[in-house]
Design goal:
The structure is a homodimer of 228-residue chains. Chain A is of the alpha+beta class and 228 residues long. The first copy, chain A, has helices at residues 9-19, 22-30, 39-46, 50-62, 82-90, 108-112, 122-134, 149-157, 185-198, 214-223, and strands at 37-38, 66-71, 74-79, 114-116, 119-121, 138-141, 144-147, 171-174, 181-184, 201-203, 210-212. The first copy, chain A, folds into two domains: 9-80, Winged helix-like DNA-binding domain superfamily/Winged helix DNA-binding domain (Arc Repressor Mutant, subunit A, Orthogonal Bundle), CATH 1.10.10.10; 95-223, no CATH class. In chain A, helix 3 packs across helix 4. Chain A binds a DNA duplex (30 and 30 nucleotides) through residues 21, 23, 38-40, 43, 48-56, 58, 72-75.
Amino acid sequence: MDEAAPLNRYQLAELGSLLAEPARAAMLLVLVDGTARPAGELAQAAGISPATASAHLRRLFDGGLLALQAQGRHRYYRLADERVAAMLESLSLARAPALHALPAKGDAQLRRARCCYRHLAGALGVAFCATLLQRDWLHTGSRGLQLLPAGVDALAGSGLPLPNVAKLYGRSCLDWTERRMHLGGPLGVTLTAAMLEAGWLRPLPRGRALQPSADGLRRLGLLGVSLD
Amino acid sequence: MDEAAPLNRYQLAELGSLLAEPARAAMLLVLVDGTARPAGELAQAAGISPATASAHLRRLFDGGLLALQAQGRHRYYRLADERVAAMLESLSLARAPALHALPAKGDAQLRRARCCYRHLAGALGVAFCATLLQRDWLHTGSRGLQLLPAGVDALAGSGLPLPNVAKLYGRSCLDWTERRMHLGGPLGVTLTAAMLEAGWLRPLPRGRALQPSADGLRRLGLLGVSLD
DNA sequence: TCGACGTTTCGCCGCGCGGCGAAGCGTCCG
DNA sequence: CGGACGCTTCGCCGCGCGGCGAAACGTCGA
């Protein structure tokens, strides 16, 4: 049977079945931000008993979507890798409303700037990535996106010291709210961590939204990043 | 329950359950190339009875993944829109082998050039898109990617007349085999159709692979598109 | 060493799903 | 008009799954 597709029917069905339960879906979604969480917490988040959670977590682990790290009596689960997070984000594609019909005001913060598996996403992430490309500070190589020395210098000049990023590669990551690309991969994670460290971005107490600081917005503006 | 994610658990689970059957998955995968096919053909492709296929197609239709077009006694089904195709392609992310462990030789053609929902994908699609960006023939605007006049001229000069593309927008589409972007959206579809029309690309009798012609490769080479 | 904690395994129950053949409906052509 | 075709609906069957409480296991701290 001619299945000229990235996955064959059984692989696609297996992936689908791993997601096809609200309890498992809830636990995966909680982990999209890249954190590791103990089984009990995931059970509570999903609203099921520890026994049920345990069965579901095992299925997700056996299915390759989760990684496990035991620490004493705690079992910490996290997404297996960035590709799982990207897959979960990209599943929004088929469900996302048209761009003109945007999420409610409450989601504006998520749309503006958020953490997508430890790298910056949202309008700010997309604008930042576009600026790097427009100014030729980002080079598309065979191994991925690479920050060029001019870009390193520009960012350092704006107060974002970035040692050793020349060796890091980034990946284009589809932004579900903007429908354009932001910068993921190790480079994206490092740049985001640097912005958090420098205070350009601040995490909010709950959820994945990130709050750009006034100083951060100013510095990004000077780099040419515009939100609008 | 704090679900700061693009989809809530029920939406994700619903999507997952639509995919969680090899028969439904098979029918979706057959349609990834953008074609419309009658119910009977889809039943055969999935290896199930027409009665079973009918039930599955209804579920996919009700779930928003398929569109239906009746024509006489034939019921033609196709993917609801490009986002469904993109979702299916992107589901490969979590399952794709590492880049160094590539698919078998038989898939080399798919990797090289293929049709992803009516636009060019694969190594050639990625290289073509990269060239357009590197030469500043493609502009990232707020509505999407737009071919600039210099790009239109360059392509016309190479034998690819492109009337009225200034009004078309393209979208970055993640290429599952290359892990980089190729050009999708109406612009990508139009460029691909033009290449097929000009004979630069030829469809193969079966599957989604596209065969670049010698002349097409030569002209693309002159534009700066290199495959390697 | 023992009790508490976090988690997993076991056993059970009820429900939903995928498969089919037969019948029925709408379209088409001789 | 009637038979054939494409497809859907109906009724049936067997199987797998998600939920739980209780018991068991491994870890930890007093």
